[in-house]
Amino acid sequence: MLYPFAFFNLGLEMARLASEAQAVIALRLARISVGDAAAGTEIMRMMTEKALAAGEAGMHVAVAAATGNLDNAARDVVVLYRRRVRANRRRLSR
């Protein structure tokens, strides 16, 4: 069942994700701009993480669709991405 503020909450989660993602982009660009071996490793890690996260999100939506629980699937996917983005921000901030 969709609650009246479900889309509002989803919008807030997406705005938080966008804000956190911008911070990670800035940190990654700073690391890549150095141009050393760590930069190459970061690029490879970034590409691998993106593919894995997209696959995980796709599986989550597929399972939700198969079980008929699509009500919170979008919010759950955004939360999943936020968890990944926060982990990257912590790692890159060290």
Helix percentage = over 70%
Low-confidence stretches: none
Order of helices and strands: HHH
- Taken together, the total number of domains comes to 1
How many strands in all?
0
**What's the overall geometry?**
elongated
Q: How far apart are the first and last residues' alpha carbons, in Å?
A: 42 Å
pLDDT averaged residue by residue = 93
Count of helical regions:
3
| Largest β sheet strand count, sense and barrel closure | none
Residue fraction in strands:
under 5%
Descriptive terms for the model:
mainly alpha, elongated
Structure, described:
- The chain has 3 helices and no strands.
- The chain has 94 residues and is an all-alpha fold.
- It has one domain (11-93).
- Helix 1 (6-34) packs antiparallel against helix 2, helix 1 packs parallel to helix 3 and helix 2 packs antiparallel against helix 3.
- The chain starts with 5 loop residues before the first helix and ends with a helix.
Layout of helices and strands, plus pairs?
Blueprint: H1 6-34, H2 37-67, H3 73-93
Helix pairs in contact: 1-2, 1-3, 2-3
